[in-house]
Amino acid sequence: MRIFDPHIHMTSRTTDDYEAMYAAGVRAVVEPSFWLGQPRTSPASFFDYFDSLLGWEPFRAAQYGIAHHCTLALNPKEAGDPRCTPVLDALPRYLLKDNVVAVGEIGYDSMTPAEDTALAAQLQMAADQGLPALVHTPHRDKLAGLRRTLDVVRESALPVERVLIDHLNETTVKEAKDSGAWLGFSVYPDTKMDEERMVALLRAYGPEQVLVNSAADWGKSDPLKTRKVADLMLAEGFTEDDVDRVLWRNPVAFYGLSGRLNLDVTAPEATHEGNSILRGQPRDAPTPDTADAAGA
Amino acid sequence: MTRPHAAPAGPDADTIGRPAAPGDGTTPAVTPPADLRRHLASRLDGAARAWFDQAVDEATTHPGTHGPISVWELRLAEAGRRCGPEHADAARVLILHAARADAEALTRVYHQGTADERRAVLHALPHLVPGPEALPLVEDALRTNDTRLVAAALGPYGARHLDAHAWRHAVLKCLFTGVAVDLVADLARRARGDAELARMLGDHAAERTAAGRTVPEDLHRVLALTEAAPAQGAAGPDVPHGKES
User: Where does the record place the region Disordered (chain A) (predicted)?
Assistant: First the structure.
């Protein structure tokens, strides 16, 4: 089974997670930029984060056999903070980068005028750069948020067919599907969707343009939720082809709209079999010990 | 999708392999740009070749800074998806060369670049910067744990300009992080007669042995190099090829 997690925040996860994800069949991920739990106070803090998503994190992922791409944006939570909004000025330069496969996550948090401005500006950037957009729906007042989101998308230069609406659920799936957008579902341990409800929605609405993600981050979340949904789909009578469609071909098709998706994992050629991350090797392992290297 | 090439090293992996020659022996930091361009042009398919030729022409005609982003900087960013990842380093080095990027421009695009772009800047340094003014970029790359950046930092430019202390630590870092020392430019010349490097290597070997770990074969190879008679000024920077009197 091959799995593409189209929304996961690997910056917050450990190498154990990468290892477990590879074992579960995950071969590709997209990491949307988002907030880090702790509000940032300057654009420079964003730029270091973007650099990490364009450098260190794909390097880490490659060592575990996983292709890593990212989406970049000023996220909705911080779009209302005037200390952070200058990020919008620098964003076009970042969106040019090879590994950027969409603008995102953008959308609404509290539905403020500042969020309106940031959402519209970033949809325009996506249109300008030939990128699709990952638009999340708010956690609070979700249905109203979805409607307002779809209105802004329709008014934008970006066709709705190039938009993935994420964090959908039973109350928002129908209107999102009717809009023509791609449909994203985040499966969490307690909140958002769970495996059983996900499979029920797949049965009710079909697998077309549906993407399932773990959205795993620094909160209570599970990077193997994609595999768990796949297993339940099979147990509930979906075919292998259905699973491959939802968990591989749909994300490949959506992010492939960027023209930048490269699913070959390139070995960090300088390392050969060694690497700078697999610390704490078994005693007899010939891999160089790097426990001290991180402090270098 | 087939199994990726980069599965993590298992306990039975051969740690210190010889470097696969990047591409087929043409390394962007060492090969003269004219040869590199001829070599790359023969390997790009039609669309990539046309894109690349235009990118080099644009960089040649419009170097320097203009507008919110210079066209050659834009081409630098997209070189990976246009030429394919296996040709991206060479393409980027050639675009930088065509744009006659100086230390100031290289510093800007390094800091604004992805890891791939930063690596290309490091490869371009020996072609474009005669003096030590771009050394901070080498030092920045050596602070990372991205082995591709560490290896690129130890190309001909780093070999020429790093002082003895920084260079020794960089060599040791290669042994720590699994960068094959064959990728270190000018290794034999700089290591020759370097008693301090020999001491550091010996201590590192002792530490690994005390922990019940194997000592990388590369460590013994570098140690052997240190035992050769010192060339005049060999341990210091700015002595390319040891030809200074």
Answer: 272-296
